[in-house]
Q: What sequence folds into this?
């Protein structure tokens, strides 16, 4: 009989049941290699019943619910697998699970044109999470996947290996399959999965997945955790904190760091709210891995329907021993060194803008842009002057400074990957609209004429007006400390620049960069 199974592989170092099963649950030892853990939830009535329907006992009885959870552990060739049933996932210690087991088995079981759904996380930059689904089998090129910076968080497709799955298969840490197997013959099937995982068959069609590779070396992980601990205590602004997975925000009341019933709720997770939750105590990795954040339900305020250890909510980039690492969803990844070299070589060959920018003497970005434009007549200050495109997207800033040579200067202070990603995409969106949206060009030119007049500039206004066939120059000016002509950027900032520069080049735009020294 076919069964839908949710399967996890336990890390080799986790050998005792209290290490991979959270809590003490009744255990039925079916055999020496198979143990069944179960949990029956208490009958309870959601708080909304009393709040809306009153205390009528008939309604209280009518709406009582109970959850059922179970986990089956199976030992195969000295490795332990966990099969979750019902709400059994909550009984499993996530730190004990191999993070890429389901993903690599799935990639090895599907063909290059058999993908149906992809969940992505942009490493570095804005840490965007997204999901895309196709109505039929598709290739990775049909999805909006940037193989240079996107981490495939989960993938679903149609299996071409019936011994792995008969139909759809999905995976990241968990492997979800439909297969004709049951309790009596599960060991043989799990042995097949283990062999497939170790064979690395995914590399023939999806080798690019290793551009950002999951780290398994515990000594290295400990070192990176120590560096993270130092960073969060000394320079927390360089760390991003966010919900580690896509959630249903319409069902979210808020987040709590104290308990599932706490009234101290924040609207969203941030690095500041995490630090505040420690009440001035020193923050250690051990505490980050034990302290929880709870997502409280707007449907039932007594119920936390998701929770994570804080460590899983942190996103960081660390350079160590001439290699680049990133933390995402509680997992450390190493960026492929050949890929890093490619990005670095491209960045070093970027043309530096020869316009003379004055140093920034701790001025706010807006003030600096005004002073820069005033000192470089005939430049127009366009900072904060927004244009609405006809595409229905939100207002767009054309640039911060516009020159009479059709140079669009975009300026940003700071050098975190998230800030840089925003800066580079701002320039890309503006250029795309100039090239493709006649109405946007018309509105942009109206704003240019308005600012030209208000700023009492001299010269010929026609030198500034934009047209779709213009040879544009996009200049990214970055305010930060240091003395190099080429601004020093974090790796994922360089990756974002690499991708944007390539797209702008295809539109016929020249791309320059400039380091504005922070005095």
A:
């Amino acid at each position: 009989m076919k069964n839908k199974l949710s399967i996890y592989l336990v890390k080799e170092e986790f050998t005792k049941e209290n290490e991979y099963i959270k809590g003490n649950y009744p255990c039925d030892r079916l055999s020496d290699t198979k143990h069944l853990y179960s949990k029956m939830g208490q009958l309870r009535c959601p708080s909304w019943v009393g709040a809306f329907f009153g205390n009528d006992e008939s309604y209280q009885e009518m709406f009582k619910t109970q959850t059922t959870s179970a986990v089956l552990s199976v030992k195969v060739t000295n490795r332990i697998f966990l099969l979750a049933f019902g709400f059994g996932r909550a009984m499993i210690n996530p730190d004990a699970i191999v993070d890429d087991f389901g993903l690599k088995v799935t990639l090895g079981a599907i063909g290059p044109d058999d993908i149906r759904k992809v969940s992505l996380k942009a490493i570095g930059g804005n840490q965007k999470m997204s999901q895309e689904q196709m109505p039929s089998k598709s290739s990775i090129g049909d999805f909006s996947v940037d193989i240079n910076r996107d981490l495939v968080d989960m993938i679903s497709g149609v299996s071409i290996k019936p011994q792995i799955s008969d139909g759809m298969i999905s995976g990241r840490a968990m492997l979800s399959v439909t297969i004709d197997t049951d309790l009596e013959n599960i060991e043989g099937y799990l042995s097949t999965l283990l062999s497939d995982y170790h064979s690395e068959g995914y590399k023939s069609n999806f080798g690019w997945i290793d551009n950002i590779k999951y780290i398994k070396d515990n000594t290295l992980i400990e070192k990176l955790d120590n560096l993270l601990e130092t960073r969060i205590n000394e320079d927390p602004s360089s760390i991003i904190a966010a919900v580690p997975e896509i959630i249903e925000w319409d069902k979210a009341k808020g987040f709590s760091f104290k308990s599932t019933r706490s009234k101290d709720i924040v609207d969203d997770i941030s690095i500041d709210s995490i630090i505040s939750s420690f009440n001035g105590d020193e923050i250690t990795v051990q505490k980050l891995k034990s302290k929880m954040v709870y997502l409280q339900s707007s449907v039932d305020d007594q119920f936390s329907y998701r929770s994570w250890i804080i460590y899983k909510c942190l996103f960081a980039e660390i350079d160590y021993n001439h290699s680049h690492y990133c933390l995402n969803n509680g997992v450390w990844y190493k960026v492929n060194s050949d890929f890093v070299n490619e990005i670095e070589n491209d960045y070093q060959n970027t043309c530096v803008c020869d316009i003379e920018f004055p140093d920034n003497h701790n001025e706010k970005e807006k003030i600096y842009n005004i002073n820069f434009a005033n000192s470089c007549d005939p430049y127009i200050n366009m900072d904060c002057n927004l244009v609405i495109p006809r595409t229905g997207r939100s207002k767009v800033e054309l640039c911060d400074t516009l020159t009479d040579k059709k140079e669009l200067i975009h300026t940003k202070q700071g050098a975190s990957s998230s800030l840089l990603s925003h800066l580079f995409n701002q320039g890309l969106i503006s250029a795309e609209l100039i090239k493709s949206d006649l109405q946007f060009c018309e509105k942009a030119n109206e704003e240019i004429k308005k600012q030209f007049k208000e700023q009492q500039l001299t010269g010929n206004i026609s030198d500034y007006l934009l047209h779709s066939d213009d040879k544009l120059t996009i200049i990214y000016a970055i305010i930060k400390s240091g003395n190099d002509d080429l601004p020093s950027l974090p790796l994922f900032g360089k990756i974002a620049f690499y991708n944007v520069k390539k797209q702008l080049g295809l539109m016929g735009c020249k791309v320059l960069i400039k380091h504005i020294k922070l005095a």
